[in-house]
Backbone:
């Protein structure tokens, strides 16, 4: 093989990667980010370098894994609904209310940690589930679209938690608007891994495995997927789509509430007003589920990736002076690119149908 | 307590609350008529608010701010237009992504350009002036709110009427509705659905941008992170409740604005902010329940089957 031949093969390889519909959205997003950083007077190459280094080296790896817990958890929560064609945009409210309920149990319930922690989690799950019931029953009983009601309820949830934290449960010994600190005994412990990753990581991995099992290997999983792909067909086939809507919303709400509880008793150790909302974790999880087309395995990978972007972004902000919000921009642009089916080399598409179907974005409705 | 509540100041806060919602909802209405499901109003409004403050700061003139806002709204709208119309992507996924993109982008640009976090207020930012119409602005109760207002506020009510005329009394409006209701029939008559859908989406970007300008240069003179705070979503509901009809959209916007304005006033009477903030969303949800028979179409659109 002579030199030009090898170069040709190399060029072809690069083209293939470039034209790969799973890779191109990332290339596109990072190009957009590069342009934005450049235009605002930053050095994008240094920024990206800091982002990468910050995500995987030093305490970065631990922080990335810690950040991945809520992102993957919220993605799994939303995937349960999305794959059944139920557009639950209320993850934020379910997470925030569940988090407060879990925090209150952890703070005010006496007893050993082995009892209080599971009870706090259960309280978070029940609260998230009940909150998710409102839009679910709204759709099945009153025919109000979940898309709208679940989203509007996020704002109501913000107000409810804001009120509860500011008045009845305020810790007035600190200047923060926050509940009291979670007692040491009632916290989710850290594992001796990379210097202390929350034990919740195991929980989330188990949840991912469970989701895979249910989605792929059970009748319920099959029926919900059918309903998501074609509701009238599923109904014709004798699947109770209404009951199913309530069921998947219950699961989504419960997992959302569980993750909210983890964020307080496993990470922040205080419920500070507005903190869970500002973190945007519920929405990052939603984007992850869309990117992964609601498949648990891909959710783990994509969740880890998005967590790395955010943690790396924080280190980029410290060392390169470029706001970490660039990570949010990159994440959203990736989804825009995937949803718009952006890819180079469109003429290749016919032969690449299967590869393309692999990254087909989750269609959350038959629009 | 209540006799002090209904006064000129309440009318004024209702009007303030209504203009951004109405403008964005009119944009959503045009998209709905053209058959494009538009839920990125929130993001475009936020982009408009940021661009308005940036433009006004740069030139120390509100005019440039408004221009920036309109251009920004239109530019952002092209993302949805390209993705949903040209590439046939899922408008719900695209809408959510655009909203989050703008939340991230404005949060990114704020420290990068202006070196501040959270809120950017500066004496150089020129707010929209209020012009009083002599005589009319002296009408008790309604006068100051309706006839001593910003140029965007003056524009919004005639615009509602103009859009009614456009949609129902002009050939172009007929074609736009045709594209939304019977795209194939429209196409067979030589009307390009793509062109009409693009114009509809870009119009909604312009209107949501204007809404953002009113928010950031009219209601207050500053940019705060996530300052649209759900108004774009309330506008989406206003389109649904108003059945994508200008009069209905105006009525729904007024209802939501009334609850926001009332909440604002009740704050002054000692009710906690957390409760009054929830009021417009609670009223929106109650209005949805009251008018629930109207949403069959959206429900079919957003639930599989």
Residues:
């Amino acid at each position: 093989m002579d030199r030009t031949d090898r170069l040709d093969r190399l060029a072809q390889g690069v083209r293939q990667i470039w034209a790969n519909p799973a890779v191109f959205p990332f290339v596109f997003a990072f190009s957009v980010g590069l342009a934005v950083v450049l235009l605002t007077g930053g050095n994008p190459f240094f920024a990206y370098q800091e982002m990468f280094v910050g995500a995987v080296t030093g305490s970065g790896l631990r922080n990335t894994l810690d950040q991945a817990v809520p992102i993957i958890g919220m993605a799994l929560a939303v995937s349960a609904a999305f794959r059944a064609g139920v557009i639950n945009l209320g993850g934020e409210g379910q997470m925030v209310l569940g988090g407060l309920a879990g925090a209150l149990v952890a703070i005010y319930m006496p007893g050993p940690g082995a009892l209080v922690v599971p009870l706090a989690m259960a309280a978070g799950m029940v609260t998230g589930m009940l909150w998710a019931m409102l839009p679910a029953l709204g759709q099945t009983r009153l025919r109000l679209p979940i898309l709208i009601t679940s989203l509007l309820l996020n704002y109501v949830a913000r107000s409810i938690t804001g009120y509860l934290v500011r008045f009845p449960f305020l810790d007035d010994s600190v200047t923060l608007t926050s509940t009291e600190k979670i007692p040491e005994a009632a916290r989710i412990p850290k594992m001796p891994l990379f210097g202390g990753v929350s034990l919740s990581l195991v929980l989330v991995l188990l949840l991912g495995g469970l989701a895979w099992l249910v989605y792929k290997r059970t009748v319920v999983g099959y029926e919900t997927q059918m309903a998501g792909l074609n509701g009238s067909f599923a109904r014709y086939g004798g699947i109770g789509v209404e009951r199913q809507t309530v069921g998947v919303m219950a699961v989504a709400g419960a997992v959302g509430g569980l993750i909210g509880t983890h964020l307080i008793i496993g990470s922040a150790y205080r419920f500070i007003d507005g903190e869970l909302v500002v973190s945007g974790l519920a929405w990052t999880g939603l984007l992850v589920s869309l990117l992964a087309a609601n498949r648990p395995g891909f959710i783990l990978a994509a969740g880890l990736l998005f967590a790395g972007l955010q943690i790396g972004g924080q280190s980029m902000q410290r060392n390169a002076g470029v706001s970490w919000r660039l990570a949010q921009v990159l994440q959203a642009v990736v989804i825009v690119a995937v949803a718009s089916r952006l890819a180079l080399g469109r003429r290749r598409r016919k032969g690449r149908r299967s590869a393309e179907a692999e990254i087909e974005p989750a269609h959350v409705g038959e629009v | 307590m209540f006799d002090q509540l209904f006064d000129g100041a309440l009318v004024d806060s209702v009007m303030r609350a209504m203009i951004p919602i109405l403008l964005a909802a009119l944009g959503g209405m045009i998209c709905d008529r053209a058959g494009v499901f538009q839920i990125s109003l929130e993001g475009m409004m936020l982009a408009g608010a940021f661009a308005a403050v940036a433009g006004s700061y740069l030139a120390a003139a509100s005019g440039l701010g408004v221009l920036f806002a309109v251009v920004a709204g239109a530019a952002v709208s092209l993302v949805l237009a390209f993705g949903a119309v040209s590439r046939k992507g899922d408008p719900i996924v695209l809408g959510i992504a655009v909203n989050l993109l703008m939340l991230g982008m404005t949060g990114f640009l704020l420290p990068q350009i202006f070196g501040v976090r959270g809120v950017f207020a500066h004496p150089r930012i020129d707010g929209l002036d209020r012009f009083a119409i002599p005589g009319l602005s002296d009408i008790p109760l309604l006068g100051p709110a309706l006839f001593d207002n910003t140029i965007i506020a003056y524009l919004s009510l005639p615009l509602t009427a103009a859009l009614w005329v456009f949609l129902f009394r002009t050939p172009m409006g007929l074609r736009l509705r045709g594209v939304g209701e019977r795209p194939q029939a429209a196409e067979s008559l030589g009307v390009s659905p793509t062109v009409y859908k693009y114009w509809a989406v870009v119009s909604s970007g312009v209107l949501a941008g204007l809404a953002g300008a009113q928010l950031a240069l009219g209601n207050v003179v500053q940019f705060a992170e996530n300052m649209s705070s759900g108004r774009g979503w309330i506008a989406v509901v206003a389109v649904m409740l108003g059945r994508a009809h200008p009069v209905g959209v105006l009525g729904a916007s007024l209802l939501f604005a009334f609850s926001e304005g009332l909440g604002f006033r009740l704050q002054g009477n000692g009710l906690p902010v957390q409760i009054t903030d929830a009021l417009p969303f609670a009223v929106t949800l109650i209005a949805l329940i009251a008018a629930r028979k109207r949403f069959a179409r959206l429900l079919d659109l957003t639930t599989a089957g």
